[in-house]
Amino acid sequence: MSTAIADLGRRARAASRTLARTSTAQRDAALLAGADLLVSRADEVLDANERDVVAAVEGGVAATVVDRLRLDVGRVEAMAAGLRQVAALPDPVGEVLDGWVRPNGLRISRVRVPLGVVAIIYENRPNVTSDAAGLCLKSGNVAFLRGSSGAIRSNVAIAGILREAYGKVDLPADALVLVEDTSREAAVAFMQQRDSIDCLIPRGGPSLIRSILDNATVPYVIDGDGNCHVYVDAAADLDMARALVVNGKTQRPSVCNATESVLVHEDVAASFLPDLAAALEGVALVGDERTRELVPEAGAATEDDWAQEFLDLRLAVRVVPSLDAAVDHIARYGSGHSEAIVTTDLLAADRFTAEVDAAAVLVNASTRFVDGEEFGFGAEIGISTQKLHARGPMGLRELTTAKYVVRGEGQTRG
Amino acid sequence: MSTAIADLGRRARAASRTLARTSTAQRDAALLAGADLLVSRADEVLDANERDVVAAVEGGVAATVVDRLRLDVGRVEAMAAGLRQVAALPDPVGEVLDGWVRPNGLRISRVRVPLGVVAIIYENRPNVTSDAAGLCLKSGNVAFLRGSSGAIRSNVAIAGILREAYGKVDLPADALVLVEDTSREAAVAFMQQRDSIDCLIPRGGPSLIRSILDNATVPYVIDGDGNCHVYVDAAADLDMARALVVNGKTQRPSVCNATESVLVHEDVAASFLPDLAAALEGVALVGDERTRELVPEAGAATEDDWAQEFLDLRLAVRVVPSLDAAVDHIARYGSGHSEAIVTTDLLAADRFTAEVDAAAVLVNASTRFVDGEEFGFGAEIGISTQKLHARGPMGLRELTTAKYVVRGEGQTRG
């Protein structure tokens, strides 16, 4: 079985060499061909998906999971629209990142190139198959995909159609390689294909991340938790602060850039917190002692509440004596995703942005803005909370690496 | 024991927060103080080193290993000079990498910041202790170091002196944390301190790399093998080609950017190879059949010879029918380090640089130029053959990450 995965890896690696020689125009044509073929053969995708859905329902899978799995014509059209949108983005490949001349006359440049083979392991969302395939192809990478067993029929149908479309415009079908073996052993073997995989990106929950940490030997980028804070400074505009917390908590509570905790400077706690509580109708508040004096309906926050990504209409609130205390709290409990300060004090803003260690620090803006689309990347493959290679929202640029090109006239080293 | 390592990690993490608030001037002062104290207390270092050397000799350690371990006054002074040289380099921290304004008025910038805690695990070279400490401190990172048991007395002495020097200029001594437990268990625990280590860089041989792949759960950058090729094109200047191969093979055969294989276009093989063989006196040649016809003293190359990093006065030679065949050979056997073409044909040069997948591709220059010093980085922590985060020579810039800073006036997401 691990031989079978290695064979797929070799096919992916071979295709990556062909892709490296293609033009942006060819790859864009393949994306558009893929979009067209997905729409014209939507019935095939929906038939396969129906079989996945029936199996899931019969297997007693939770309704929310079945909902993420289920496709309809609109969802297939959205997948096609996603491919067309990616085709319209600028190609990151070929950008000259920097260049200089050495005293001995060597001309050195650093050029953006595809990673090669990007592996993505993901859970029950069949749309990830086409989204990931699109982003990888645009950036000149082979998409080496391993979805879950629950969506395998859908994934096989979608991948088959895209591979056929690539062939129609003379790109290798193996620009998309799908692992059809959905066993746990195949997943582990997949994470260990160092000869073929240049970068592995998991799209899934904590158990998938744990498995990567335990088993992967290929390089990977992890899309981690977001325990995001808003610190309301002594010099905050309190109306603005209230609007930002309400937006950060309630606009879409289930996502990683939602606000999970609010830290309020003690000088403004009494004027801010009762108003905030009133504005957060339907949100369960838990707080420290001082918060509960000001907002009697708030529950008592436990140590777990400070550390947790609720992903729900629940908010932890703490009154802090200083900016330093807020920064300390964030250093202790934050997950390095997105952290915001609300203030009109320039020195406070500068200290917060300098001292808080996170992928994104925001001043007077909602934590909800930290994603690839809101940053203007046009597409997003995830949000990295690690510091190597990619930090924060990952777009096409994060699916590339660099190559040094050195030109001389026969220089030798003395 | 793993608790003890975790405690050291917590100290490193705490110090990294203090370092993040220091100025370039403060960190440079600490580097200069460290250099001065190393020189004035060289006796302590040499005493400790003598005990390591005696233990190594008594333990029957190979003479070449003992030689790498042994320090003298000159080597201690060279360590101090290295710290002064790093102090004189530009500080990468704070560079604004890019920035833009979104339609909603949000101002986004991406700023270079320290990684935080950089872990380095290394073998018997005590100079790595001060070299790594210097590069980490300059780039605002805590150096979390784990050397080998054979150099532990030297490492403890060097680290102690540097820590004392940092304290003299009001930096935290924990800007350098040395793991004194040199057991295998401690090494494995070290590789798994995800709460404290932002990046692990191994400096050592294949068994260390294997242990990282098997055990590490922290993010790492691997400094891999260099099986570097020179392709002599049909349109090469053959005198230049000969000089480049001689330089690449013989100037310092034991390093990763030395040339290990030469691929010669069949049109020039007869005029080139006999001359090359004559110029490579003292180098053992192994080749394919055609090479052995032209150079009768060459041995027969095995499959292993094509794949191996000799690190010795040994060179593999193959006659190839085309540029494509050269590119295919490199794709099959290369390690993605440094690959060169010698040619006067612009189209051949462009195809080679585009199609060969390596950290560095060179045109008409010796593979020996691919290192941090020759690239002008002023210092080098290693040469990455992986594609994530850092590819090719790693200088101070590769010891940093980026942070998004988002500034608004109360924007909420709709």
Automatic annotation (TrEMBL), chains A, B:
Q: In which pathway does it act?
A: Amino-acid biosynthesis; L-proline biosynthesis; L-glutamate 5-semialdehyde from L-glutamate: step 2/2
Q: Name one Pfam family in it.
A: Aldedh
* UniProt keywords, alphabetically: Amino-acid biosynthesis, Cytoplasm, NADP, Oxidoreductase, Proline biosynthesis
Taxonomy-wise, where does this protein's organism fall, top ranks first? Bacteria, Bacillati, Actinomycetota, Acidimicrobiia, Acidimicrobiales
UniProt organism field:
Iamia majanohamensis
Q: What name goes with this protein?
A: Gamma-glutamyl phosphate reductase
The cross-references to PROSITE patterns, in alphabetical order and at most eight, read: PROA
Catalytic reaction equation(s): L-glutamate 5-semialdehyde + phosphate + NADP(+) = L-glutamyl 5-phosphate + NADPH + H(+)
Q: Which GO terms describe its cellular component?
A: cytoplasm
List localization entries.
Cytoplasm
A GO BP annotation: L-proline biosynthetic process
Instruction: Supply the SUPFAM superfamilies for this chain.
Output: ALDH-like
Q: Which stretches are transmembrane?
A: none
The molecular function terms in GO held by this entry are: glutamate-5-semialdehyde dehydrogenase activity; NADP binding
Main location (coarse class): cytoplasm
The Aldehyde dehydrogenase domain covers which part of the protein? 10-291
What function is annotated for this protein? Catalyzes the NADPH-dependent reduction of L-glutamate 5-phosphate into L-glutamate 5-semialdehyde and phosphate. The product spontaneously undergoes cyclization to form 1-pyrroline-5-carboxylate.
Q: What is its EC number?
A: 1.2.1.41
Q: Which InterPro entries match?
A: Ald_DH/histidinol_DH (IPR016161), Ald_DH_C (IPR016163), Ald_DH_N (IPR016162), Aldehyde_DH_dom (IPR015590), G-glutamylP_reductase_CS (IPR020593), Glu-5-SA_DH (IPR012134), GPR_dom (IPR000965)
